[in-house]
Amino acid sequence: MNRIIIILCVAFLVFSCKSKKGIVTRKPSDDSKQVEAKQEERYIDFHRATAQKEMSLYGIPASITLAQGILESGSGKGRLSVEANNHFGIKCHGWTGKKIYHDDDEKQECFRKYKDAKYSFRDHSLFLSERKRYSKLFKLKKEDYKGWAKGLKAAGYATDRKYPQKLISLIERYKLYEFDKEVLGDTYVKFETPITEARTTYTVVKGDTLYSISRQYNISVKELQNINGLSDSSLSIG
Question: Which of 93, 106, 187, 191 is the most exposed place for a label (fewest CB within 10 A)?
Fold first, then answer.
């Protein structure tokens, strides 16, 4: 086995004016990971019903909404979410309600301030459903959370190139797709991503494992084994 074949998604080069707050990013130490996980779990428990209601009304997967909320609000601990109930970093842009000023792309930018977090979730739904650049998302199946995650990045929602990977990781870690299933009921069909992406190869070097390679390309170890016809975890350098 000289080379490992990887499935890669086609990259889209999209540019648009940035109208969203940057993601709250943190690099927790080993000691704080458990605390962070509990915060994320509490966030999900508290906001799951709201996300599911928005899915019923606007067709945005609850799994996507919750994962975005966790990322952008720091599990509800970020300044905008604490002081303004703004969980998605939506800026003023003609807003006539209360405001809060916060450093983002520029110093002291204007962000919307809400009486309750549920109004932030509603504005998130309107933000996506009323803007043409996100229209392709609503042609995707509601079960296709991977497609939604990648589509958001392609449409210019976030500048972080790992944004889709972060959303997908949260959704799969906490099985947020189960909330989509609850909303869709009998119409829910597990979505399998069609293998239509371009292929490339990766040359194995000393220290590589199937796990490390799978993490690098955002696929599972099982997928990597299937793609390459591997029955175990053995690799050969080169």
Answer: 106
Which residues, in sequence order, are CB contacts of 216 under 8 Å at separation 6+? 202
- HEC secondary structure over 177-191: HHHHHHHHHHHCCCC
Contacts (Cβ under 8 Å, ≥6 apart) of 131? none
For residues 135 and 126, give the distance between their C-alpha atoms in angstroms, rounded to a whole number: 12
Q: Cβ(39)–Cβ(77) under 8 Å? A: yes
Residue 225 tokens, joined: 């084994």
Reading the block at residue 94, the tokens are: 């003609």
CA distance 230 to 76: 42
**What is d(CA 231, CA 207) in angstroms, rounded to the nearest whole number?**
20
Buried b (16+ CB within 10 A) or exposed e, 170-201: bbeebebbebbbebbeeebeebeeeeeeeeee
- 54: exposed, middle or buried (C-beta count within 10 Å: 0-12, 13-18, 19+)? buried
Helix (H, G, I), strand (E, B) or coil at 44: helix
- The H-or-E segment that residue 111 falls in is strand 109-112
Please identify which residue in the block is written with the tokens 């371009």. 198
Q: Enter the tokens of residue 16.
A: 């648009």
Residue 143's nearest CA partner among 169, 174, 176 is: 176
| Residue from 96, 98, 130, 126 nearest 114 by CA | 98
Distance, CA of 141 to CA of 230 (rounded, Å): 31
- 65-79, 156-170, 192-206: least confident range: 192-206
